[in-house]
């Protein structure tokens, strides 16, 4: 099975790295508008490079679209002569499978996914949803290609924009939190790099506790807060700063924006 990535920027490049781990670099083709970008990636991972999108599509069985949402339909339209017998996989935020399929003139099954940048190191989260023509075998093959990316879940299309807000956009929110915690550490006299490591490892461990214990985050939070102690002082400060409202608002804003990106 050959897999092509058309658009190997931040997200397409991250998923291409993951696919090289899952199916082997010899089965992977990179294609980008800026050829140097695809060639640099190919030198790093050992995959092939296609000179243009149509050639990439002709070379592959599974065609992953990594271009921006406002471009994806136009690029798919250029691939129509090569789509018979292939499967199209789009990572474009907010673009519905019906629109992707229409751009492909119904020539092939369509799968929509939503990855995140931690997929580059195998610690990502990916949603997969079936579009027109996609059968179980196509979804299973897409999941096999994505298995080197991290946790893969099937999500119904009506939930894709909300999923994207938490998981696709969320890494940026998490990095903001890590950066802010490190700023606090620097304020308290820690070297920047040390403070950043402490913050990132703390977040990694806390996330693993949620996933591995299955406990409610509120209960895990309570277990850190000693009565009259330092943690509850910090928790109260976060509440005074509107921390939880800010997080909810961030997801809501990203959800609404995702829905509009595909229009
Ligand atoms: N970034 C993220 O965290 C996530 C992004 N996504 C989705 O991934 C997609 C890509 O986003 P992102 O990686 O951030 O964007 P980038 O701009 O980093 O990457 C897009 C790449 O596609 C290239 N490109 C544009 N047109 C073509 C074409 N016709 N043929 C080949 N290559 C082309 C661009 O080249 P050039 O720069 O020269 O124009 C660029 O290198 C979007 O649809 C986005 O919604 C989904 C989840 C998370
Ligand atoms: O910011 C964006 O539009 C994309 C969608 C999900 C993550 N990044």
Largest sheet: 8 strands, mixed
CATH fold assignment of the largest domain = Rossmann fold
Low-confidence stretches: none
CATH class category label of the largest domain? Alpha Beta
Give the full name of the CATH homologous superfamily of the largest domain.
Answer: NAD(P)-binding Rossmann-like Domain
- Which second-level CATH architecture of the largest domain applies? 3-Layer(aba) Sandwich
Widest beta sheet: strand line-up: 3-2-1-4-5-6-7-8
Strand content: 5-15%
CA-based gyration radius: 21 Å
Structural class by helix and strand composition: alpha/beta
Distance between the termini: 33 Å
> Using DSSP, what is the number of strands?
8
Main features:
8 strands; binds NADPH dihydro-nicotinamide-adenine-dinucleotide phosphate; single chain; 13% strand; Rossmann fold; eight-stranded mixed sheet; binds (2S)-3,4-dihydro-2H-pyrrole-2-carboxylic acid; ProC C-terminal domain-like fold
Structure report:
By secondary structure, the protein is of the alpha/beta class. It folds into 2 domains: 3-160, NAD(P)-binding Rossmann-like Domain (Rossmann fold, 3-Layer(aba) Sandwich); 170-261, ProC C-terminal domain-like (ProC C-terminal domain-like fold), CATH 1.10.3730. The chain has helices at residues 10-23, 35-45, 53-59, 69-79, 97-103, 136-146, 160-168, 170-187, 192-213, 217-222, 230-240, 243-261; strands at 3-6, 28-31, 48-49, 62-65, 87-90, 110-114, 124-130, 150-154. The chain has an 8-stranded mixed sheet, sandwiched between helices. The longest helix has 22 residues, at 192-213. The protein starts with a strand and ends with a helix. The mean pLDDT is 97. It binds NADPH dihydro-nicotinamide-adenine-dinucleotide phosphate and (2S)-3,4-dihydro-2H-pyrrole-2-carboxylic acid (A1CAB). NADPH dihydro-nicotinamide-adenine-dinucleotide phosphate binds at residues 6-7, 9-12, 31-34, 37, 53, 66-69, 71, 75, 91-93, 114-117, 168.
